[in-house]
Design goal:
By secondary structure, the chain is α/β, with parallel strands linked by helices. The protein has helices spanning 54-64, 75-78, 81-91, 99-113, 117-131, 141-152, 159-172, 214-225, 227-234, 249-253, 274-279, 304-317, and strands at 6-7, 185-188, 193-195, 203-208, 238-244, 264-268, 284-285, 287-291, 297-302. It folds into two domains: 10-172, no CATH class; 185-317, Glutaredoxin. The chain starts with 5 loop residues before the first strand and ends with a helix.
């Protein structure tokens, strides 16, 4: 069977990330930051002592993080390790800034890199690796989106150089958090048919899987054992829909008995495989989408740990 996606193996990434408290230092501590030794002449900006609040300091640091990076030193393109560590530290700051600061920070980074086309392509590739790769522990499409928007209108790149990123932009814009998930038709093993938007439940969990995927099996077992999942399913508040997005009927039939009885075991009911090809960007399995009662996306293409944390926080706050 040939698929357009693959099982994820996120444990392969071992990049170490500093705590954000090391980035948003107390006044006067900037000189102690370890990134200073990673790339020649790179150092953090000095955060004005007048900025006292952690978010203010984080936003200033994010916006000025790259002020002292030498974008003319193209040797880093061939030895990217130090720059990757600096980039991973930078990414760890982003959860602590608001959206305008995030977008401005990413645009500033790429504008500086854009003075040399090869350096721009270098940083675009690093951002893709860290923020878009399904196996990256830093993966965050909302952080990656400003980079794609920048590339979309960047005059320094030609259409061929932009093409991969424009394709990614199309995928990132599908089913974003806060939007209504794309509706689709599905079929169950007993022949019944339905549509996603017709499911009546406070929450709906879409579980895209492949029967031969070890990570899919592990995630399925973990979901079945999670107390929050059990409580919501038994209380009639959560409907889990296991979706096999390929068109191999024999393969789908083989997994009839591996999906829990309380889940809907479904396949794409369209000849053109619209779920996989058009509606959802399924780049790796398993892939989880958590939707609210209106089928608005709460979590997009998330993993088990993030889902478990969200559900546990929801139930503890209820």
């Amino acid at each position: 069977m040939v698929s357009v996606y693959y099982c994820s193996h996120k444990a392969e990434y071992t990049t170490q990330v500093q705590e954000v408290s090391d980035k948003v230092q107390k006044p006067g501590d900037e000189a102690q930051h370890p990134s200073e030794t990673r790339v020649a002449r790179f150092r953090l900006p000095e955060i004005p002592v007048t900025l006292k609040e952690p978010q203010q300091r984080a936003e200033y640091l994010a916006l000025h993080y790259w002020d002292h990076y030498n974008f003319t030193d193209t040797a880093s393109i061939h030895s990217p390790g130090d720059t990757e560590q600096i980039l991973s530290d930078y990414i760890s700051i982003l959860p602590y800034v608001d959206r305008p600061a995030l977008e401005g920070s990413v645009a500033t980074l790429l504008s500086k890199a854009g003075e040399h086309r090869n350096m721009l392509l270098f940083f675009a590739g690093l951002l893709e690796k860290y923020l878009y790769d399904p196996n990256s522990p830093f993966r965050n499409e909302e952080y990656y989106l400003p980079a794609l928007r920048f590339i979309e209108t960047c005059p320094a790149l030609d259409e061929v150089q932009k093409s991969r990123y424009l394709f990614q932009l199309t995928n990132v814009l599908k089913n974003r958090q806060g939007t209504i998930a794309a509706d689709f038709a599905y079929r169950l093993h007993d022949g019944r048919k339905g549509r996603l938007h017709k499911i009546r439940s406070e929450f709906t969990l879409l579980y895209f899987y492949d029967p031969d995927c070890p990570d899919c099996r592990h995630t399925r077992e973990m979901l079945a054992q999670l107390p929050a999942i059990t409580a919501l399913v038994q209380g009639g508040r959560l409907q889990i829909v296991a979706i096999y997005p390929d068109g191999d009927a024999e393969e789908w039939e083989s997994c009839r008995n591996i999906i829990p009885d309380t889940w809907l075991n479904a396949c794409d009911d369209t000849e053109e495989l619209a779920v996989r090809e058009e509606l959802y960007a399924i780049r790796a399995v398993p892939s989880l989408y958590l939707l609210d009662s209106e089928k608005r996306v709460i979590l997009k293409d998330t993993d088990y740990n993030t889902l478990a944390a969200w559900l546990n926080n929801f139930l503890s706050a209820a």
